[in-house]
From TrEMBL:
Gene: C17orf99
Alphabetized Pfam families for the sequence: Ig_C17orf99 (PF17736)
GO biological process: mature B cell differentiation involved in immune response; positive regulation of immunoglobulin production in mucosal tissue
IL-40-like Ig domain: residues covered: 28-121, 125-214
Sorted UniProt keywords: Glycoprotein, Signal
Keyword Glycoprotein among UniProt keywords: yes
InterPro entries: Ig-like_dom_sf, Ig-like_fold, IL-40-like_Ig
Span of the signal peptide: 1-22
Protein name: Chromosome 17 open reading frame 99
């Protein structure tokens, strides 16, 4: 989105910081939006600004982050002003903050609250959860290391290591796109674990996996990956310490 580099603040700074606020406008300006069209990599949204108590004609400015003026409209009645915008999903979330400024002919103005469109536009269910269970001995005894990652999902995912009884043992919220890594000491008795990936839209679980993989196997000699409870702890050819 190429925007003219007009600064709302620069234009109106003088009036907003004057000591005596003549004809002070206290009423609210409302800001709302709806998604008009969904494209693979973008959305067309309609942003509506409405200042009920400002005397018309009202100059509505739609401002983005850093107070960059995106669009302007003069409305001669008490009707709201609407702006249609094309938003690309490449934009970083903070580029999607908008507010409206309604100014009367006297130059007095009032701003709406900030509209943050990030979650609603970016929301994606958790998909393709992959979990790797591994037993490593890095010299200080064996540890179980579990790495969990999804291919996509937004808002950011909270990963949990969950027991068969549903109990959450460990939890992590890595930065978007990064895997979660859990590490713990294997217990004497095998137990079933699974990885859970959840955002506030959806949740996924990996297969229940036996940890440690089997009591007959020589754990202390074991180093490798296993992904299903039936696989031996040390697959043939796996390196050992
Ligand atoms: C918005 O973007 C879509 C797809 O990228 C395009 O087809 C459409 O013409 C654009 N609309 C405007 C108003 O720029
Ligand atoms: C998990 O490990 C991977 C690979 O070492 C790393 O890129 C990632 O940042 C780690 N995740 C966390 C939450 O530390
Ligand atoms: C998800 O969480 C975000 C931030 O807390 C919130 O704005 C959004 O409305 C939530 N979405 C759903 C579907 O609950």
């Amino acid at each position: 989105m190429r925007l003219p580099g007009l600064l709302c603040l620069a234009v109106l700074a003088a009036s907003s910081f004057s000591e005596v606020q003549e004809e002070e406008i206290t009423p609210d300006v409302s800001i709302a939006y709806k998604v008009l069209e969904v494209f693979p990599k973008g959305r067309r949204v309609l942003i509506t600004c409405h200042a009920l108590q400002v005397p018309p004609p009202i100059t509505y400015s739609l401002c983005g982050t850093k107070n960059i003026k995106v669009a302007k409209k003069v409305v001669k009645t008490h009707k709201p002003a609407s702006f249609s915008l094309n938003i690309t999903l490449k934009s970083s979330p903070d580029l999607l903050t908008y507010f409206c400024r309604a100014a009367s002919t006297s130059g007095a103005h009032v701003d709406s609250a900030r509209l943050q469109m990030y979650w609603e536009l970016w929301s994606k269910p958790v998909s393709e959860l992959r979990a790797n269970f591994a037993l490593w001995d890095r010299g200080s005894g064996p540890r179980v290391e579990v790495s969990c990652q999804v291919s996509s999902g937004s808002p950011p995912i909270t990963y949990s290591l969950v027991g068969k009884d549903g109990q959450v043992h460990l939890q992590q919220r890595p930065r978007p796109g990064e895997p979660a890594n859990f590490s713990f000491l294997p217990s004497q008795t095998s137990d079933w674990f699974q990885c859970q990936a959840e955002n506030n839209i959806s949740v996924q679980h990996s297969a229940l996996t036996l940890v440690p993989p089997g009591r007959d196997q020589k754990m202390q000699d074991c180093q490798g990956l296993w992904s299903a409870p039936s696989l031996p702890c040390c697959p043939t050819g796996a390196p050992t310490i």
